[in-house]
Write a structure and sequence with these properties.
There is one protein chain. It is built from 15 helices and 36 strands. The chain is α+β, with helices and mostly antiparallel strands. The strands form eight sheets. A seven-stranded mixed beta sheet has the order 1-2-7-8-9-10-11. Strand 19 and strand 20 form a beta hairpin. It is globular and about 85 Å long. It starts with a strand and ends with a strand.
Length: 666
């Protein structure tokens, strides 16, 4: 039966999903399947925009027949001849022999290679000066060579501002009933697969993608209809921003993608130790075992992060096979502008490091750390020290070095850089002040610009019970450090979930970065800092609203600010429910669990065939759940039997009141 979705009143999605395809293009694992989009315009003329992969051809033809509802098919616009979109053109011509195919000259050449039966008279060639009018819509065409093949073009509807973007802005994964990107949490749930799709499918062609983005930036675009994934009708700017980063070989996050190839675990051991040291220094790390994780996932992570650590054992006098495959892919996908650290292993003739260096040197913009580490079979006497040095070198490159403290009495010129305000979102900030020579601070989520005149002003609100609030009332001065998406949760635990009344939060910090007002600011995972002087304050009962002139503002980097939504979705750890377990018997060999008080004497494990002698008794685990309330800010659970927390209750960790708690059982 037909399965179509409405994009606009006269535009239907008539594509289909394939959830049984194991590998897309024969190489990229797609555990969530793949979508193949086709669109049907029902204007005065009828137009199909691209066909689909042959695996879903029958569904497509049912959709098309339903959509046409007996009307003639006038045009087929072909944007791309790769068979995942073009395989059913021949079949379509058999069913709709009078259709006119609209495409550029190169597409026609490719089409007649795949389908010699396509006659010249079936095809109407267009170029960037052509237009196709269908009644209420008018289409012009934009060539997009190498996004993803050389013949690719896109169509733009100048009336309804719709861009048919071919492979661009696609994503791996089948659709789940949704058709619009704004119907899902795209940036949260789909971005990783969108990045893996982009980097592996068109990652090599960054300059060509940049050209298309440049052309597209001159158009008003209300809808984007790609050949895979979701239709965009709002929020598209965030995705374009990612494309801009990926296609210019920038990075989304400062941090390390650490990939290792280890046969007997010694190289892996060293990779783990290095990762631990990096994390201790505040560096974000994602680790991949090249023998277990497909190269496409690691390529995607390598595009995401600014730095790479590659650790490989030597194998057949070369790199280990899975590392060689990965590095060949990096070269093929042209992953530029990364700084790379190398660890090699080899029992008698370590070669992997030299070969890694040779391969990666061919990619423009690649830099290397001097601290190459060579293992002979296993970590040796000097390995610990070498790892320390490498971790220090990487961390120094990733985390900006704290600037020297402002010497006492020395005046530093305070400058207000307007771009710093671009980093203010509904996000999270560290609020700091200084009282009687000592530093204080707490987390807020309330900084906003409130005036943009000659003097720029900022508003913040702080919970009255926070000691920092009390001190700002006295000092009238504060700094605001704006957190980026890379900020780890431990920063919130340290500055947000304990009180400066009892704990010196700045006693053991490894930075002493200060603005001209002498107040400390946080230099890590922060993209902008503001120095402020209070001009008015309003006691709102539970919190105080401070209005302040911004006397200094500067940007530290261009990493995205952590919005409050991002914090909840990606930074704050999710509480895992503790499962109850019935009484039973566990097989000591394979872990099979038999539920029941008595294990039958003739019982045979259905997984490993072992008998009762290899089972051990496991008592029931009962979880006594307590009724109470959980803090939405910091996760603190307050056992409480009543229907609502007392009005004067405040969280012992973060000082937030009952309005920030929700009922829970734990
Ligand atoms: Fe989705 Fe290049 O094909």
């Amino acid at each position: 039966m037909y399965c179509v979705k409405k994009v606009l009143e006269d535009l239907l999605w008539i594509g289909a999903d394939d959830r049984r395809v194991p590998v897309f293009e024969g190489v990229y694992e797609v555990p969530n399947g793949m979508s193949y989009n086709s669109y049907l315009l029902l204007d005065d003329k009828t137009v199909v925009f691209d066909t689909v992969d042959k695996a879903v051809g029958e569904q497509f033809f049912e959709n098309l027949k339903y959509g046409l509802n007996g009307r003639k098919l006038d045009y087929l616009v072909v944007h791309h001849m790769e068979p995942d979109h073009a395989a059913t053109i021949g079949n379509l011509l058999l069913r709709y022999p009078d259709v006119t195919i609209i495409c550029n000259a190169k597409i026609k050449t490719f089409m007649q290679q795949f389908f010699p039966e396509v006659k010249d008279e079936n095809v109407q060639i267009v170029d960037e000066s052509s237009a196709l009018e269908t009644g209420h819509h008018k289409f012009v065409f934009v060539n997009a060579p190498m996004v993803h093949w050389p013949e690719v073009m896109m169509s733009y509807d100048v009336e309804k501002k719709i861009l048919f973007s071919a492979d661009a802005f696609g994503v791996f994964g089948a659709l789940n009933g949704h058709i619009f990107a704004d119907e899902v949490d795209f940036m949260g749930d789909w971005l990783d697969e969108a990045r893996r799709y982009y980097t592996n499918i068109v990652g090599k062609y960054g300059p060509q993608v940049q050209n298309v983005l440049k052309k597209a930036s001159t158009l008003q675009i209300d809808y984007v209809c790609p050949l895979h994934g979701f239709v965009w009708r709002r929020g598209f700017g965030d995705f374009v921003e990612k494309y801009s980063i990926w296609s210019s070989y920038g990075y989304e996050k400062k941090g390390v993608c650490l990939a290792y190839a280890s046969v007997y675990g010694h190289t892996e051991n060293v990779a783990n130790i290095l990762a631990g040291k990096l994390v201790d220094r505040g560096v974000d790390v994602e680790m991949y075992d090249t023998s277990m994780i497909p190269a496409s996932n690691i390529i995607s992570a390598a595009f995401k992060y600014s730095h790479l650590v590659l650790a490989s054992t030597t194998y057949n006098n070369g790199m280990f096979v899975t590392m060689e495959n990965l590095v060949n892919d990096m070269v093929a996908h042209n992953l530029r502008n990364r700084k790379v650290a190398i660890i090699e292993n080899g029992s008698w003739a370590p070669q992997a490091g030299k070969l890694l260096l040779e391969k990666l040197t061919t990619i423009p913009g690649t830099e290397f750390f001097d601290n190459k580490i060579t293992l002979k079979s296993a970590p040796g006497a000097s390995t610990e020290e070498e790892l320390e040095e490498l971790a220090n070198a990487i961390a120094a490159d990733i985390i900006p070095a704290p600037k020297a403290a402002v010497p006492k009495g020395e005046l530093v010129k305070a400058e207000v850089v307007p771009e710093a305000f671009f980093n203010l979102t509904y996000g999270l900030e560290l609020l700091t002040t200084k009282f009687e020579g000592k530093d204080y601070g707490c987390i807020i989520n309330s900084a906003a610009q409130v005036a943009d005149s000659e003097v720029k002003s900022m508003a913040i609100s702080v919970i009255n019970k926070n000691y920092t609030c009390e001190l700002i009332r006295k000092t009238g001065e504060f700094n605001v450090s704006v957190f980026t998406e890379s900020v780890p949760f431990k920063v919130f635990e340290h500055y947000g979930f304990q009180s400066g009344r009892y704990v010196d939060k700045f006693a053991d910090v490894d930075y002493d970065t200060r603005l001209a007002n002498g107040i400390i600011y946080f230099p890590y995972h922060v993209n902008a800092v503001f120095g402020c002087k209070v001009v008015a304050s309003f006691d709102l009962g539970k919190s105080t609203l401070f209005i302040a002139d911004v006397v200094e503002a500067k940007t530290l980097n261009r990493e995205p600010s952590a919005t409050y939504a991002f914090y909840h979705a990606h930074i704050k750890p999710k509480k895992k429910p503790v499962a109850e377990q019935p009484e039973g018997w566990r097989c000591k060999v394979c872990n099979y669990f038999y539920e029941g008080a008595e294990l039958p004497a003739d019982f045979v494990c259905p997984l490993c065939n072992h008998g009762p002698e290899d089972f051990e008794y496991v008592p029931a685990v009962k979880i006594e759940k307590k009724k109470g309330f959980v803090c939405k800010i910091c996760g603190h659970f307050e056992p409480y039997e009543g229907d609502a927390l007392p009005a004067d209750y405040s969280c012992p960790l973060c000082n937030h009141g009952p309005e920030d708690f929700e009922p829970a059982e734990m």
